Amino acid sequence: MFESPQWIVYGANTIIFLWLFWALYVLVMGLYRAHLMKNLTKLTYVLGAPWLILGLAFDFIANIFIATIIFLDLPRNILSLLD
Predict the structure, then answer these.
(1) Does 48 or 7 have the greater pLDDT score?
(2) pTM above 0.85, yes or no
């Protein structure tokens, strides 16, 4: 059976992760804009909360792994990523 090189798998996973990261960013910023304009109801807060938590998790993972590779610098304070 054909096996693809490992770097292709890592590259494809990184591209998929970054695309999902961007999509979650757009979604969370839309929720934030609606929150600032006072357009969110209790139902939309409840429906938006899981996406916000998922977006926070993606942001944390991107800051730990992808940003470390891009900037060649380890995070100095892990808790500051949650600000």
Answers:
(1) 48
(2) no
